[in-house]
Every structure is written in structure tokens, then in C-alpha cells.
Amino acid sequence: MRTLVLNAGFEPLAVVTFRRALLLVFTDKATVLAADEEHPVVGPNQIMPRPTVILLNRYVRMPHRRNLQVSRRGVLRRDAHRCAYCGRSASTVDHIIPRSRGGADSWENLVAACHGCNSAKGDRTLAQLGWKLRFAPGTPRGTHWFITELDRPAEAWSPFLRSAA
């Protein structure tokens, strides 16, 4: 069971277990905004609904990381698992300027690609093939793009995620 933690400004901060969420609520560090009535938490003295969304009582300042580490998962998430060349579903990562030609492992040089496009491109450049990118790749932006659990959000989270976007 997962619980969405919202910062005091209502932006998504993290996803934690319901036990961690209960601890934050019991220590008066957070308040429950949404709870699951069907699967209550049964304690020795009380029965309470399981929290699905909590709001921190104090604002937690998130440090801005200027140098976000490049990763395969990060590139696929940034590109929404869509091929940068044809738009089909992507499961691999491709270097725009091939590594054999001095291309770096950077956010600007890596894009998601389908197997067909990645194989067809090989170690050639886009100019040699006459291909164009569907978008300009860059470092991901936003306050909560790195929370991997938001790829498959719970239904109870949707009103809180729409307000933060």
C-alpha cells in the first residue's frame, strides 16, 4: 500500500508506505487528505482508515539539482516511452551523435527509440539518414518528474496530481 506525500504547497513530494504515513500523521507532521475506508488499519486500541494522500504541515524545501544524472530509465521517462524518430513505443535509448563519433552520454544527446529505428540508425548521424527528431531533447524539468511511482498513480491521487501539474 502506497501513500502520496504532498508538500505544504500541495506539490507531490514522495510516495511512502502507509506505515510511514501513519507515523507522520501520529507525530503531527502531516494530515490525512484522502483515506481508503475499505482496507482499514487495525491497531490494538483503534481502527482507522488507511491514508492514501497526506499533506505535510510544514513546507520542505527541495534542493534543485543542477546536474541530474543521466540514466536509461530517466531518458525513457522524459520521452514518455515514445520513439524520438517515429513516435512508436520505445524500449531502448539511442545516441543522436553516436558514441563512435564522439557523442556523449548527456540529456541532450540521448533519446528514447524503438528497436526498428535504433537498428536502422546504427552508428550514423541524422544528417546521413535524412531523419529529424520529433522534439528537442534536454534536461527534464519539473518538481516531481523523478518520483517513479507517479508512472502508475493510484486512483485516489488523481485530484491532487492534477492540481499540482
Element string (H = helix, E = strand): EEHEEHEEHHH
The largest sheet has its strands arranged as 2-1-4-3
Total number of helices? 5
Instruction: Give the rounded overall mean pLDDT.
Output: 88
- In this structure, how is the largest beta sheet organized? 4 strands, mixed
Please, could you describe this protein's structure?
- This protein is α+β, with helices and mostly antiparallel strands and 165 residues long.
- The chain contains 5 helices and 6 strands.
- It folds into 2 domains: 2-62, no CATH class; 72-129, no CATH class.
- 19% of the residues are buried.
Topology:
Elements: E1 2-6, E2 12-17, H1 18-26, E3 30-42, E4 47-56, H2 72-78, E5 92-95, E6 110-113, H3 115-121, H4 126-129, H5 158-164
Highlighted features:
165 residues, alpha+beta, 2 domains, two-stranded antiparallel ribbon, 5 helices, elongated, 5-methylcytosine-specific restriction endonuclease McrA, hydrolase, nuclease
Quick take:
By secondary structure, the chain is α+β, with helices and mostly antiparallel strands. The chain folds into 2 domains: 2-62, no CATH class; 72-129, no CATH class.
